[in-house]
Write a structure and sequence with these properties.
The chain is an alpha+beta fold and 273 residues long. It has 4 helices and 12 strands; from the N terminus they run βαβαβββββββββαβα.
């Protein structure tokens, strides 16, 4: 199945934990996020051994546990050697500051609970994704986004990072980029036809306030941190995420869209799953 997508009203909600769905905007097709480089697969974490509503940093499949072969297939294919599990149980203003990750793609797998990822589409407008149990999501490095728990105030998620090096969870607020960030520039070239909305004086956005008061450079992965340190109070400056392409691996996936020829091919079928 596809993720639940909607437009926001207003673009910067007073209470981000509420749905804030723009009922007049109509259906948001998953291809909108596909075009922006976002990947999504629906896995099933039930029946496998994960911490019970708690964090574990780092995390490895328990030797005597019941482990998910589909998840392992994705990890092997995209070299996600690092994994941890974090928990967020409160709204965190830092996570909701619009930002990018310059250290690599952001990869999140929701094991329990739910939350909202707000993601900029190629027209620089917000798309809200409600990430629920089983959502496996990847965001390309350089895409602007933010995160909030929903009204249930609880999410447990796995963060994955490729390679054997320490994960880079750092983030850069949109207000501090100014066209001088390598990861953002690469994203603009690949997905926005080289036109950065922050630098294009002819660009008219959807009424969003891009430069809302973001004075602090928030260096823990924000939502991506999804509880960075594993806690629900503030980003973890030691761990953030990046990740490879989105786990195309349909492995145990029941719906998928992502970047790349293979993923796009699979996506064409998965949108209707």
């Amino acid at each position: 199945s596809c993720p639940k997508l909607s437009r926001l009203t207003p673009p910067t909600p007073a209470d981000p934990t509420q749905s804030n769905k723009n009922e007049t905007a109509g259906f948001v097709d998953p291809s909108v996020l596909l075009a922006a480089g976002v990947g999504y697969a629906l896995l099933d974490p039930s029946g496998f051994t994960y911490p019970n509503r708690t964090k574990e940093i780092p995390w490895s499949p328990p030797a005597n546990g019941t482990n998910d072969p589909a998840l392992q297939e994705i990890r092997d294919e995209f070299d996600y050697q690092y994994a941890d599990i974090v928990v967020v149980t409160a709204y965190n203003e830092g996570f909701y500051e619009e930002h990018i990750h310059a250290g690599g793609d952001e990869v999140r797998y929701v094991l329990d609970g739910s939350g909202y990822f707000d993601i900029r589409d190629v027209n620089d407008e917000w798309v809200r994704m409600q990430a629920t149990e089983g959502a496996f999501i990847t965001f390309p490095s350089g895409i602007e986004h933010r995160f909030s728990v929903d009204e249930n105030l609880y999410i447990q998620a796995m963060r994955l990072f490729p390679g054997s090096a320490d994960p880079d969870w750092s983030s850069v607020p949109r207000s501090e980029i100014h066209g001088n960030n390598t990861a953002r520039n690469a994203y603009v070239e690949e997905f926005l036809c080289g036109v950065d909305p922050d630098l294009d004086h002819d660009h008219h956005d959807s009424g969003d306030d891009h430069d809302t008061d973001h004075d602090s450079d928030h260096t823990g992965d924000d939502e991506s941190d999804i509880g960075a340190s594993g806690d629900d109070h503030g980003p973890d400056h030691d761990h953030d995420q990046s990740g490879d392409d989105e786990g195309d691996s349909g492995a145990n996936g029941r719906g998928l869209f992502g970047v790349g020829a293979l993923l796009a091919m699979v996506a064409g079928l998965a949108f209707h799953a």
